[in-house]
Amino acid sequence: MPAPGELLFVAPRRAKPPRHLADLSPADRRAAVGELGQPPFRASQLSNHYFSRLVDDPEAMTDVPAASREALVGALLPTLLTPVREVTCDDGATRKTVWRLFDGTLVESVLMRYFGPAAPALAELGDESDDEVLASESPARPAPTTRGRDRVTICVSSQAGCGMNCPFCATGQAGLTRNLSTGEIVEQVVAGARAMARGEIPGGAGRISNVVFMGMGEPLANYNAVLGAVRRLTDPAPEGLGISQRGITVSTVGLVPAIDKLTAEGLNVTLAVSLHAPDDELRDTLVPINTRWKVAEVLDAAARYVDATKRRVSIEYALIRDINDQAWRADMLGQLLRERLGHLVHVNLIPLNPTPGSIWTASRSKDEKAFVRGLENQGVTVTVRDTRGREIEGACGQLATDTQPTASSSAAGK
To answer: Which one is catalytic: 70, 89, 108, 339?
Structure first.
């Protein structure tokens, strides 16, 4: 466990996972296939099987000669993730999977399927990428939304553990083990896509519509791998999964140089900033990265992202009883956001989810409602996050790779 306030930006050196098709650009895949003595078009065949057909059985790749198949699969489609445990809730519509990586490291992802109309003031995970307001639109006329439809969101991990050390987050308290590769990140989504395509989640066969980088780790501290994953997820099929860039949310605690770097990429993903306090005095404690980049610097970087992309920024704010839920902090937050981000901002209030050993708890209902009113009075759009996955320790801040069997767990693969 890291010391209070200690930050770790560089992951410990560990053995690298095997190279995977998802680590490579289309051009690099063709080169890799050529190194194996195979014609370049084999790269397109493998991409089609992996990203479009979601094949995980080499025997199903019947258009690839059997004599070549073993070498190609062994070199470019190695096993990256092995399911250790699956836990479900919401009648199976929410599923958390614990994955073992090639070196025994454990990470988690959470797949969530939403049915029917959502409560007007209740945000679902993935809403960060919905309802964005373009600069040419009125704030009162949000863009089309997928809320209320059959939507599937997967929350993925980008690191094993986290070096940002936020004291209310189970992942942050575990410390940082290592970065994930692009392939290891993408495979979490592909595994979820397979589950949906095969009808393993109640509601019949379907597709993943939203990916949120809100699992274990600070995504922008593993910048290159996360950027590669975003490109693989959004590249048109069969070169990638073909998910809309607008369906991707990248979260950060506020690594200002990395936010500016993401701004320069020219992507249309949603940026989510985990703020959790509007004042530096409190945020220095709740989000230790604030000792490096202050609130104003983080919001200014977010404003530069808005200016470049015309995308609405999501502000994530975990409400903690008697710590950051005072009405005056709602007023301060609202004023800051209006001044620095205008109308292209949305606040997601997150009732604090319980974690082992935590001294903090969620805000009282009356204080939560007062906080919402305070933001609304400042003209800031706000919703309260649905606590989907809380009972299986799959909600925000709860992922910590506890692999001990529980009564609600199911053996992986069943």
So the answer is: 108
